[in-house]
Amino acid sequence: MEHSCSWYVVVVSVVEKVRVYVDVREEASGIPSILESMGVIVLREHLPVGDYVLPGDVVVERKTIDDYVNSLFDGRLFDQVSRMVEGYDIVVLVVEGDSYALRRYSDRFKQLYSALAHLIVNFNVSVVHTLDPSDTAIFIEALARKSLELGGSRVIIHKKPRLESLREWQLYVVSSLPGIGPKTAEKLLGKFKTVEAICTASIAELQRVLGERRAEKIKQLLKTPYEPTGKRFRTLEDYVG
After folding, report:
1. What is the pLDDT of residues 72-89, one digit of tens each?
2. Which domain does 23 fall in, by range?
3. Which of 62, 66, 176, 190 is the most buried (most CB within 10 A)?
4. Is 97 inside a domain boundary?
């Protein structure tokens, strides 16, 4: 009597859950709850910069149309973007709402778009328009998932860490420079070997690793004398004519 055995192979696909850190002040927008309904693990924190921190060293700042315009006029947006660029490799500005509403500011309509162009060209910020919180949630989930698929590291919130090794301190110091995130800090230290060598490198040497704009920003930081008196936020007029 013969016995036959059948073997069944069950393949289990494990999909890594997307984790997103959300600033607690975003709760009222409803976006964190929408993200959770999409299967995203939402971690609520008081973020030092940005509204959402995603895998791959990505930070997202969300502005409604009115908040976008007001923050341009009073200078808050340029300050916020400057701090995000200092801490993260990829900075995304989401402008939420009907962009046609910008026509309400007809007397300064051209300036508003000039300011957007300035953020894109000079700060290397990606600007995305969404219609409402639901659209914003869909975009954030897609961005976080794509970053994770492409090998983006776990989510990192850039607060002053408790560092133990010299290597960690070197990376922390270099990544605090304008426009430098952890990955670029690794690249700079790999090229120049020491923090001192990075600080004393010429613009031409830095450009080979960073490109012209970031190299110039770093040299400006290192060479500009410290001003102890408080300075106002730079406003729209400081950037566009």
Report:
1. 888 788 888 888 887 788
2. 19-149
3. 62
4. yes
Q: Which residues pair with 21 in a beta bridge?
A: 43, 53
Domain-terminating residue out of 122, 149, 176: 149
Residue 181 and residue 84 in contact, taking contact as beta carbons nearer than 8 Å: no
Where do we find the tokens 């600033």? 23
Judge contact between 22 and 61, C-beta under 8 A: no
- Can you give the CATH number for the domain in which 189 is found? 1.10.150.20
Task: Please report where in the chains the tokens 């975003």 appear, as a residue.
Answer: 26
- Confidence check: pLDDT of 237 > 80: no
| d(C-alpha 140, C-alpha 158), whole Å | 19
Provide the pLDDT for residue 156: 56
Q: Are 207 and 170 within one domain?
A: yes
Whether residues 25 and 138 fall in one domain: yes
Give how far Cα 130 sits from Cα of 7, 62, 99, 231, 232, Å.
51, 10, 9, 33, 31
Closest CA to 36 of 53, 17, 55, 50: 17
State the angle between helix axes of 76-87 and 65-74 in degrees (0 to 180), rounded to the nearest 10. 90
Residue range 11-27, pLDDT digits in tens: 444 456 889 999 999 99
Taking alpha carbons only, the member of 10, 14, 45, 38 closest to residue 140 is 38
My answer on whether 176 and 144 are in the same domain is no
Give how many domains the chain has, as a whole number: 2
pTM of the model: 0.63
